[in-house]
Task: inverse folding
């Protein structure tokens, strides 16, 4: 790719001696002395709240590795600018990470909008990239390792529980953009698979803070539980209004709230009472591995507010990458990717999980995180390993064989699913 | 109202009589009224000026003189009534369309392009009437108005009197048929006022241009005009020669009462 | 032969006038040096850095568009990014439907749609009697409306042909501008944008120093006076605003092609404020100031972000506040004054050259 | 929403839903806008840091409430803190921009940038949120947050308060005189500098009050003030520069539109309708409702009958076009 650019450049300048000058194009080699990773995670702007633990976890993992002697005897350099929740800035910084710092692996981006903004750059450069946010699922892309839990994994643990516990009738509210819409489609599928029923749904604009009529509509349908894929600080207003409208007795299943933005810590109780989130990890998970990790985080970062689900995903994926590099015996991205694509077992703070080489997704130890009236967290039931089945079984995504760069949707043309509730 | 009835032709006739002999009135208003909020600034005014006339418009503060001007130039839209110019109903025309028909105006507060040079100010006016190279025309005008020495000064650095003259010069550069001057000598020295009066008289005699001048200073009015309209409380109060107006007890009263 | 020289001379003189800073030999010498630097830049920093710099260059059109309408005609638009965004989306929609071969007609379509939207909004405002600071409010409201609307177009129903608007996730996969089989990216795109920007800059110089430029400046200085000189102020503002939309639209097309992506953040308040920042910092009555400040501010912003410092945004804000407080007319007029004083001093010292020449060097 | 299957009594409750939603929307629009409108209408400054003034109010209220202050006390603390903050900012920076309204936009934007990030540096990405006082209003199968409905009452009280301040107090009279013509006001012995300070402080206090009142209902992050900007600017565009009349009528009109579409269709359509109304308003009422009302009033005073005086503005509203003055 770099060679290509140089050819473009020669053509453009038309300078006969430019070939000689090409040696002077030194920008690409800056910081190329040792292995470098890029950590491009939001620490300010809209996603600063949820991005900061991601940044901190990645840093912590790299620092631990360096203290331990590095990888293949080499210390790892870090390039960690602040993209400020701005997608154009992400594009610039990802280019910079790849071209100027020649990063060997990249952790970048909270929202799926950011992922889509940088995906062309990642693909063009065949950059090894870990996208760690829990997301709607379906990205089958040879350069991306989407190691966060997918909607199918999260909803797949929480919705069956809700149906068993509270009854079959659900009402869905979701953020009106790609993540929310696709998650809503998964909700339909999972409800249907588990004998549930969809009474109604509503898409909520991203900037909305007024949920009065939404709550009225929910009351009108009188569901057994609500499925919420609300996103961001604005939508958190729903939980307060739910409390002051007095409907905390209608339990909520969610794939988003609490596990990322730790609403149970930031909102005054009991607005999150009776909220159930399908998670693979949060800092309340009480296992030795988890506690060790959480302690290390707070030791290293004094003013850290929470260790969220995504932070853990960054943390274990750094170690996963380390193992792959060591097995490959080189930092060469293609070689490392080849190792990763053979699949790998990882001991993460959430427990032992597995990378699926064919789809670049992970199995996860899925739990139900529940808040009580004091916002104390418990995890009813046993952690359940859920595999990322959609791409492998339903779509047949097999990246080592067929290196694609696509995102599949549950009701898209290549998917076997049909909308079980076409009238709602 | 009675004062104007005798000498005003019905403007409607003038407007409809396009094919006939042109009315001597270049400008006429018919029942012109303007209200701002609760205040009636101009009340049912029938005002007319003959072509080639030099008319002075006087009246105490708040009599509505400047408002009347703005209604004539289209900067204000009348609440009711009509304005006729050269036999045409121009009530609904935009200001620039009225200027195109040969009006021109000097504002009450000196109004030039302050951050531009004097020459640029003149060019901006001159390019309205001159195609091609502006410089000969601009130089001529600068000389005519004795602004040549300050041509490269920024307009905001001019003295008050010079600023007034620059604005008059710009207004005249358009070669208008009718020029509206709102207090052209306000803030000028006596000498400067006399120069302006002389210039106006010359122009009045040598050209067929029509002038309407709002003026406060009755001595200046004396220097330039013998036809005077007195405006009071938004209505036409008197109209006549300067002598008649000077000797009118009621006019004195409104002036004393008004100020 | 002499005729050609004469033609060249008159073409050059059309570039200069009282409405631009920098008209003399000193300015043009510095300009030539700067130009050489701009064109040599990719040879020293490499294709990647050139690609980065392309972003700042293409923002230059956006900066120029606001400088043109605000600095020269006194119309403060808070909505230049709306035209920028509309054009970018239009470019995306056309190219995603018709492929990379269609980038030229797509670019045209983008610019035309931005122009039409600007014309419609301009007509609403200027013929509706909206003036002064209300123009800023109305254009800002329009931009925020576009933001909210585009952010919620994620559903499958929001598609034009094969192109899904994509809501908050935006529209990925927009191809590079392709001309005669050459796909412009990296250094080639840099040169394309640099040449276009140069041409646009020179064209705008001619325009603002022309008769029409004089009318624009008259409207900026005093609308009533300009109107009483017989200028159709509403029409002038409408035309200038519309053309500003064209320039902003052009910027948007280049942007979509640069990042192969566009999303609703182009309509966000934080982006909408940027052109105002650039133009204020550079000096709103200075075209070169707008371009230079666009480049400078964005570059600095990026450098600060790359440090990862939490103080980056505070520093940017403080810098802006400083400039707007202490150089109210912007950096270029400020520099111009000092350069002029410096040159005058130099000439005095050498005892050579008349005042007249100093004037020729540095305009009035 | 399928109305055919629900029993008839629900329709009455649906009307209550609609009414409460309207009150909620009205309150949000009015409170989002008042601080902005006072500073803009009285001083001609578009305060792009309006959201961050709200942030100051919201944060100080939340900190006070979480520290144990009763909610009403916390609201007063939040409002006063913002007023003091606004006055300090006015004295140190904004007073330099009074004759440069356009530059003041750049300055306030820079201030906004620094304040958001400064808040993040100092307080972190969020602070603990206070919870909403009062409970719910219950009717039939429905309920509504009593607090949000109560805010409608507060917003009306705020509007009345502003009206009284500007018409019945010496400060108000002086302020209006200063805004009309600062030179004359000065000549008449008004300390205009003081008036500017107080007006700015008053506008800041209103923004602070908004932040204080909504503090328990929103997530306390450094961007909390940004939630109000769209509504605030839309209300200014639709209302025009008149503080009390424009803002209240804009609140009623936009609140009704938003409530109707949110309630009958969905939140999404509520928002789209709100924005569409704003766009239409730009076309139809370039000076907002204030402009239309003044136009009608002028015509009434010009001696037309009510019917007649409404006729022309109606035409103007439908076909556009405005007067030059």
Result:
């Amino acid at each position: 790719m770099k060679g290509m650019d140089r050819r473009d450049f020669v053509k453009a300048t038309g300078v006969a001696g430019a070939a000689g000058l090409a040696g002077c194009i030194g920008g690409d080699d800056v910081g190329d002395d040792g292995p470098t990773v890029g950590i491009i995670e939001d620490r300010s702007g809209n996603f600063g709240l949820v991005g900061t633990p991601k940044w901190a976890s990645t840093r912590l993992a790299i620092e631990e590795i360096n203290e331990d002697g590095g990888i293949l005897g080499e210390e790892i350099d870090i390039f960690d600018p602040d993209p400020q929740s701005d997608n154009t800035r992400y594009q610039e910084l990802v280019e910079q990470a790849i071209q100027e710092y020649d990063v060997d692996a990249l952790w970048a981006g909270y929202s799926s909008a950011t992922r889509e903004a940088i995906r062309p750059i990642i693909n063009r450069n065949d950059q090894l990239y870990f996208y760690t946010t829990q997301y709607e699922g379906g990205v089958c892309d040879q350069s991306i390792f989407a190691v966060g839990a997918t909607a199918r994994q999260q909803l797949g643990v929480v919705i069956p529980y809700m149906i068993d516990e509270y009854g079959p009738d659900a009402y869905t509210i979701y953020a009106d953009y790609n993540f929310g819409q696709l998650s809503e489609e998964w909700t339909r599928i999972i409800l249907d698979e588990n004998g549930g029923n969809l009474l109604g749904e509503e898409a909520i604009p991203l900037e909305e803070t007024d949920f009065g009529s939404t709550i009225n509509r929910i009351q009108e349908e009188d569901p057994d539980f609500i499925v919420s894929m609300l996103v961001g600080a604005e939508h958190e207003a729903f939980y307060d209004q739910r409390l002051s409208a007095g409907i905390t007795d209608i339990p909520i299943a969610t794939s988003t709230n609490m596990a990322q933005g730790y609403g149970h810590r930031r909102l005054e109780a009991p607005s999150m009472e009776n909220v159930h989130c399908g998670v693979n990890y949060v800092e309340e998970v009480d296992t030795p591995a988890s506690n060790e990790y959480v302690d290390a985080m707070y030791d290293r970062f004094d003013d850290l507010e929470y260790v969220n689900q995504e932070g853990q995903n960054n943390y274990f994926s750094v170690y996963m990458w380390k193992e792959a590099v060591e097995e490959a015996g080189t930092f060469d991205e293609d070689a490392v990717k080849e190792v990763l694509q053979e699949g790998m077992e990882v001991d993460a703070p959430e427990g032992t999980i597995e990378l699926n080489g064919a789809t670049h997704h992970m199995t996860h130890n899925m739990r139900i995180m529940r808040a009580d009236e004091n916002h104390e967290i418990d995890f009813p039931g046993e952690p359940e390993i859920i595999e990322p089945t959609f791409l492998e079984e339903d779509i047949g995504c097999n990246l080592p064989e067929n290196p694609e760069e696509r995102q599949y949707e549950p009701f898209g043309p290549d998917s076997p699913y049909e909308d079980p509730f076409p009238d709602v | 109202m009675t004062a104007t009835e005798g000498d005003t032709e019905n403007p409607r006739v003038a407007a409809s009589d396009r094919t006939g002999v042109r009315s001597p009135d270049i400008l006429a208003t018919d029942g012109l009224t303007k209200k701002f909020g609760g205040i009636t600034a101009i009340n049912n005014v029938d005002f007319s000026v003959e072509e080639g006339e030099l008319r002075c418009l006087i009246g105490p503060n708040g009599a509505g003189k400047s408002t009347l001007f703005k209604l004539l130039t289209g900067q204000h839209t009348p609440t009711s009534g009509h304005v006729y110019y050269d036999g045409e109903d121009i009530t609904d025309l935009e200001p620039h369309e009225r200027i195109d028909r040969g009006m021109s105006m000097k504002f009450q507060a000196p109004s030039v392009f302050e951050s531009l040079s004097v020459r640029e100010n003149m060019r901006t006016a001159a390019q309205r009437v001159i195609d091609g190279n502006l410089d000969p025309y601009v130089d001529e005008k600068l000389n005519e108005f004795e602004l040549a020495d300050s041509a490269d000064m920024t307009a905001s650095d001019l003295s008050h009197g010079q600023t007034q003259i620059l604005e008059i010069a710009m207004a005249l550069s358009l070669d208008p048929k009718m020029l509206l001057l709102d207090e052209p000598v306000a803030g000028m020295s006596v000498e400067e006022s006399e120069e302006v009066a002389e210039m106006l008289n010359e122009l009045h005699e040598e050209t067929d241009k029509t002038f309407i001048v709002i003026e406060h200073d009755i001595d200046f009015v004396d220097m330039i005009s013998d036809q005077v309209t007195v405006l009071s409380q938004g209505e036409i109060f008197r109209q006549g020669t300067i002598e008649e107006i000077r000797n009118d007890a009621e006019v004195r009263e409104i002036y004393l009462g008004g100020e | 032969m002499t005729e050609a020289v004469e033609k060249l001379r008159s073409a050059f003189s059309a570039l200069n006038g009282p409405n631009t800073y920098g008209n003399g030999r000193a300015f043009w010498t510095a300009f030539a040096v700067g130009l050489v630097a701009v064109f040599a830049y990719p040879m020293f920093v490499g294709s990647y850095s050139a690609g980065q710099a392309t972003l700042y260059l293409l923002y230059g059109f956006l900066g120029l568009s606001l400088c043109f309408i605000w600095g020269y005609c006194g119309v403060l638009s808070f909505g230049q990014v709306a035209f920028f965004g509309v054009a970018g989306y239009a470019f995306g929609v056309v190219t995603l439907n018709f492929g990379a071969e269609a980038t030229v007609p797509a670019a045209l379509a983008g610019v035309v749609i931005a122009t039409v939207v600007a014309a419609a909004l301009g007509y609403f405002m200027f013929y509706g009697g909206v003036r002064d600071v209300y123009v800023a409010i109305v254009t800002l409201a329009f931009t925020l409306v576009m933001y909210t609307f585009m952010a919620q177009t994620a559903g499958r129903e929001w598609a034009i042909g094969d192109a899904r608007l994509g809501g908050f996730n935006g529209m990925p996969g927009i191809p590079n501008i392709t001309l005669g089989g050459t796909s412009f990216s990296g250094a080639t795109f840099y040169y394309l944008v640099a040449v276009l920007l140069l041409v646009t800059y020179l064209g705008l110089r001619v325009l603002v120093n022309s008769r029409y430029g004089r009318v624009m400046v008259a409207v900026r200085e005093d609308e009533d006076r300009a109107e009483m000189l017989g200028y159709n102020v509403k029409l002038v503002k409408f035309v200038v605003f519309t053309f500003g939309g064209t320039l902003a639209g052009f910027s948007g097309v280049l942007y979509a092609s640069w990042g192969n992506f566009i999303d609703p953040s182009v309509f966000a308040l934080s982006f909408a404020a940027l052109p105002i920042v650039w133009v204020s910092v550079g000096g709103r009555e200075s075209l070169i100031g707008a371009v230079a400040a666009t480049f400078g501010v964005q570059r600095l912003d990026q450098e600060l972000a790359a440090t990862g410092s939490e103080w980056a945004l505070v520093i940017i804000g403080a810098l802006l506040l400083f400039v707007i407080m202490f150089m109210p007319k912007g950096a270029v007029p400020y520099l111009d004054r000092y350069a002029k004083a410096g040159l005058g001093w130099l000439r005095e010292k050498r005892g050579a050259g008349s005042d007249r020449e100093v004037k020729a060097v540095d305009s009035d | 929403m399928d109305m055919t299957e629900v029993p008839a009594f629900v329709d009455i409750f649906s009307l209550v839903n609609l009414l409460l939603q309207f009150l909620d929307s009205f309150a949000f629009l009015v409170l989002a806008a008042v601080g902005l409108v006072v500073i803009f209408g009285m001083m001609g400054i578009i305060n792009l840091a309006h959201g961050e003034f709200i942030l100051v109010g919201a944060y100080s209220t939340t900190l006070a409430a979480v520290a144990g202050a009763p909610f009403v006390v916390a609201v007063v603390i939040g409002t006063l803190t913002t007023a003091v903050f606004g006055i300090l900012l006015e004295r140190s920076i904004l007073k330099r921009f009074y004759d440069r309204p356009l530059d003041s936009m750049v300055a306030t934007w820079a201030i906004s940038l620094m304040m958001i990030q400064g808040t993040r540096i100092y307080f972190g990405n969020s602070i603990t949120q206070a919870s909403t006082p009062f409970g719910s209003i219950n009717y039939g199968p429905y309920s509504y947050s009593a607090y949000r409905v109560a805010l409608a009452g507060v917003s009306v009280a705020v509007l009345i308060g502003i009206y009284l301040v500007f018409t019945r107090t010496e400060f108000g009279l002086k302020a209006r005189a200063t805004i009309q013509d600062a030179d004359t006001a000065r000549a008449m012995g008004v300390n205009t500098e003081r008036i500017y300070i107080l007006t700015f402080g008053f506008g800041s206090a209103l923004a602070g009050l908004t932040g204080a009142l909504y503090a328990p209902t929103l997530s306390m992050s450094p961007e909390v003030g940004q939630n109000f900007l769209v509504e605030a600017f839309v209300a200014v565009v639709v209302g025009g520069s008149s503080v009390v009349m424009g803002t209240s009528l804009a609140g009623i009109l936009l609140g009704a539109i938003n409530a109707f579409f949110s309630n009958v269709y969905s939140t999404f359509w509520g928002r789209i309708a709100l924005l569409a109304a704003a766009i239409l308003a730009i076309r139809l009422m370039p000076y907002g409702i204030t402009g239309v009302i003044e136009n009608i009033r002028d015509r009434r005073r010009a001696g037309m009958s009510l019917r007649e005086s409404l006729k022309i503005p109606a035409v103007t509203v439908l076909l556009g076009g405005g007067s030059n003055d």
Q: What stands out?
A: Confidence is low (pLDDT under 50) at residues 312-325 of chain D. The radius of gyration of chain D is 21 Å. Chain D has two domains: 3-284, 286-325.
